[in-house]
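Budget justification aside, the reviewers requested a transparent look at the raw inputs and outputs of the sequence design task funded under Objective 1. We therefore reproduce one unedited record. The lines immediately below are the structure tokens for a 620-residue chain.
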């Protein structure tokens, strides 16, 4: 008989699913089954278990006829007890085999999704910055989680459902026709009475469920925006608590109404379905009685009872097999989405014959006629040429959006040049082993990222085997150890989500300490002191100055004090090197640098002490 709770799962394709229905090809199926091939032995066990379990699950229905005819009507206590015990043993056996099948099925599904997740994560780690800046982060996470988790449902539900339901249906039909072909046909004719209303009610209920899901997404959006650290702060600062509460209250009210409609949607349907579920057996009893009394004296009460029991067992398999096309299309669509990510080309990777030089790198950099664009119609860098020698420091300045950060991102190959060549120690970076290249480059960016852990854990990310002494020395050089010493738990102080428990300056100095532990040959400071107060800037400046004096470095900065420490200043404007030289040389030109000096650098140093300002002003 049909389930009393009514349909809960969508059993039809939406218009969007119909429109985006994947093309099932031999290659696609072959690729899908390639993930099953390593587990063919376990799959064979599952197949055998399904066949045996499906057969045994129908035996109690057949034995019921024996119990009635030979045990009760035949008045044989021995046969009655024998068939009852046998029915119990068969039922227990079917359930135990079902447990084995379920375990093996789950084991296979978990291992396949384990393989797929690992492959996906490894592949995504190789993707370039272009991939992460062009794709929605939520979509990336969905492919990694929901889509691959859906594969488990395909294996444990869809594939086994096809097998078990097909076998159950075939065996049930064979037994029914063996008992009475006439009653078997009557039983088959009754089945649509269950299926048609079930599918109709399911579609109606899904429509309401879809509305409910949309409302739920809206509520989650409100919560995500207003309950986050930044969101709730914005709400408070603009006094929008009541406005946001009213939005939440209204959406919450709609959700309640939709939930009530959804709960009541199948009520009258279930009343009708329960009535139909009684009509089927009654029709079989009526037809069986007519046959037994007037046409076929060999037909017994037990035979009719068996047919009624088997009819009830047929409804589920028939209904599920009718919906299997929907499950199949969704399964293929899910695999197609996953394979789309697998097939995305890796834009930046080590060449097969990549060079990995021995010994310590010098960190020398040269740009030769370098050009770069994100989109062909918008050139970012044009014909960039400069050389950074070992132990020297270059400062890169320019208006916002002029391409400064893009320029330094070409060195560790976060992006690849679209023309020209970038060399590291006189070797084209595209010919160097990517791991070697990035091992020897340390970047301190404006937007410091710290993991939600302790200071120690964030530092060890650069060098997992670093000793306590190395950690302390790095923190001292980064001018952050005094702060750490004042904390109750020292290096084990928790920094919070994205380091929000720390100030901008503290996070920045921890990031400098992290890069120092890496001990790179080339250090890049990408606006490391931007948007910080004068005190924080001075502490970071105190940490940076000894570093750039002792190793090869590139500085991108808006602060005059930072720029003056460089051996040469490159002025980037409209994607080209507009000017180059020392501070005093560039000031006398009266060009872009002079404008930046008057509008940005002077403003950035206005709060400094006069004597400190005069000192930096006179440096070369």
């Amino acid at each position: 008989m049909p389930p009393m709770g009514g349909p809960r799962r969508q059993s039809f394709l939406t218009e969007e699913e119909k429109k985006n229905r994947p093309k099932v090809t031999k290659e696609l199926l072959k690729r899908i089954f390639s993930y099953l091939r390593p587990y063919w032995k376990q799959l064979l066990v599952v197949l055998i278990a399904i066949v045996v379990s499906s057969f045994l699950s129908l035996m109690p229905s057949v034995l019921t006829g024996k119990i009635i005819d030979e045990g009760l009507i035949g008045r044989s206590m021995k046969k009655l007890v024998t068939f009852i015990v046998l029915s119990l043993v068969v039922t227990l056996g079917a359930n135990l085999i079902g447990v084995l099948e379920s375990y093996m099925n789950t084991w296979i599904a978990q291992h396949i999704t384990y393989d797929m997740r690992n492959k996906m994560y490894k592949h995504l780690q190789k993707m370039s910055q272009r991939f992460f800046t062009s794709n929605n982060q939520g979509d990336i996470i969905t492919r990694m989680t929901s889509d691959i988790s859906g594969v488990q449902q395909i294996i444990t539900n869809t594939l086994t459902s096809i097998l078990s339901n097909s076998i159950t249906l075939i065996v049930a039909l064979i037994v029914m026709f063996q008992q009475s072909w006439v009653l078997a046909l009557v039983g088959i004719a009754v089945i649509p009475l269950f299926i048609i209303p079930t599918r109709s009610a399911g579609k109606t209920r899904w429509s309401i469920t879809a509305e409910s899901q949309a409302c739920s997404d809206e509520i989650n959006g409100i919560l995500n925006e207003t309950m986050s650290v930044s969101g709730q702060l914005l709400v408070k600062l603009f006094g929008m608590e009541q406005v946001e509460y009213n939005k939440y209250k209204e959406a919450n009210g709609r959700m309640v109404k939709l939930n009530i409609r959804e709960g009541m949607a199948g009520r009258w349907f279930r009343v009708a379905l329960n009535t139909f579920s009684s009509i089927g057996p009654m029709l079989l009893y009526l037809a069986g009685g007519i046959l037994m009394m007037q046409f076929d004296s060999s037909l017994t009460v037990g035979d009719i009872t068996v047919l009624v029991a088997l009819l009830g067992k047929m409804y589920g398999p028939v209904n599920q097999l009718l919906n299997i096309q929907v499950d199949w299309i969704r399964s293929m669509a899910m695999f197609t989405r996953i394979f789309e990510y697998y097939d995305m080309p890796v834009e930046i990777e080590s060449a097969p014959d990549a060079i990995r030089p021995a010994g310590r790198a010098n960190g020398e950099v040269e740009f030769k006629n370098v050009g770069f664009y994100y989109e062909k119609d918008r050139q970012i860098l044009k014909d960039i040429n400069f050389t950074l020698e070992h132990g020297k420091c270059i400062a890169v300045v320019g208006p916002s959006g002029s391409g400064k950060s893009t320029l330094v991102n070409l060195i560790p190959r976060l992006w690849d040049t679209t023309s020209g060549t970038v060399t590291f120690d006189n070797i084209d970076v595209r010919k160097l082993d990517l791991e070697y290249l990035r091992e020897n480059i340390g970047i301190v960016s404006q937007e410091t990222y710290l993991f939600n852990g302790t200071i120690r854990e964030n530092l060890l990310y650069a060098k997992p085997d670093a000793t306590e002494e190395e950690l302390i020395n790095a923190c001292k050089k980064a001018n952050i150890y005094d702060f750490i010493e004042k904390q109750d738990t020292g290096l084990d102080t928790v920094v919070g989500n994205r380091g929000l428990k720390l100030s901008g300056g503290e996070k920045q100095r921890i990031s400098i300490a992290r890069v120092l532990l890496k001990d790179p040959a080339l250090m890049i400071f990408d606006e490391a002191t931007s948007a910080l107060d004068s005190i924080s800037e001075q502490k970071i400046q105190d940490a940076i100055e000894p570093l750039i004096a002792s190793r090869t470095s590139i500085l991108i900065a808006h602060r005059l004090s930072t720029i003056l420490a460089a051996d040469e200043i490159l002025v980037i404007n409209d994607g080209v090197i507009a000017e180059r030289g020392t501070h005093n040389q560039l000031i006398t030109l009266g060009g872009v640098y002079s404008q930046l000096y008057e509008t940005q650098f002077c403003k950035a140093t206005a709060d400094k002490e006069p004597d400190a300002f005069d000192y930096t002003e006179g440096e070369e």
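Strands lie at 365-375, 378-388, 393-397, 419-424, 427-428, 441-444, 522-526, 552-556, 568-573, 576-581. The chain has a mean pLDDT of 79. Computational costs for records of this kind are itemized in the attached budget.
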